[in-house]
Amino acid sequence: MSAAPSPRGGSIISVRGVTKRFGDFVAVDDLSFEVPTGSVFAFLGANGSGKSTSIRMMIGILTPSAGEIELDGIDVIRHPRRVRDRIGYMGQRVSLYTGLTLRENVEFYAGLHGLAGAALETRWGALRERFTLAHAERERPENLPAGIRQRAGLALATLHQPRVLFLDEPTAGVDVQSRALFWDLIQEASDEGVTVFVTTHFLEEVDYCDWVCFIDEGRLIANAAPEELRARFGGGYSVGLELADGDRHAAPALRAALAREGLAVSGDEAAIRIRAGRLDDAVLAPVARALAEHPGARVRVEPPEMVGVIRRMLS
Prior knowledge:
Order of helices and strands: EEEHEEHEHHHEHEEEHEHEEHEH
Mean pLDDT: 89
Number of strands: 14
Strand content: 25-35%
């Protein structure tokens, strides 16, 4: 599978034929993919699959053994330092210095990017409010709950307004509520035009992403939108039509009509179920006609869970 251009304007990262060897060991093997500009891009793989090595090459820390990497128009291999101001990075272990308050961490990171004075106050003031960090500003990171540390780490990673944000396992070790809030903040960054490149072990979080790239033993095995993966490996959507009490007598005729449309129909008088490989006009148009005849009906769509999709893809 190959990445399609983003409607927001092409690709901001291009990885072409990248290989990384450590002696006789091949950590990354002829990897090629594109990251659409402004997308939330999921980069998945098991431990030891090569994803951390790939990220280090993309941000200019490691030099590939072969291949080309371009980020925001910069040749990363030839000019790794020029990439640094265009990216933000946050790892699973948030890079906040213990012994310093959050505000002191802010001033340290701001200094690395030449941000100071009124410009810093304006930028940090906006982030402090957006990430709800005012109460934590004078606290040391080691005294903060994990969820607040993660929000602080994300705020610092975006302090210099990077074009690309790399997030390596950003929601590991935090509770479900904090994870949901974190993804809201990620989506806000994407809506503002920031490209978010994220790794996660929580496969259900792939639903927050626009594109999925999966590597195994250093090789690309999937590169597509989540809906495409669902269509290929998901085993089908389930669409439920729950009829109102007064409509149940019409269920047999309705089931037969939907079946004549070529749909896989099951269920009883109370709930008709339709299985479909993907949700397109061939499925949605007959359902819409059914709803027009039975306005009291309720529709429930159950997509294949991403955990099952990934398992089928790897089997």
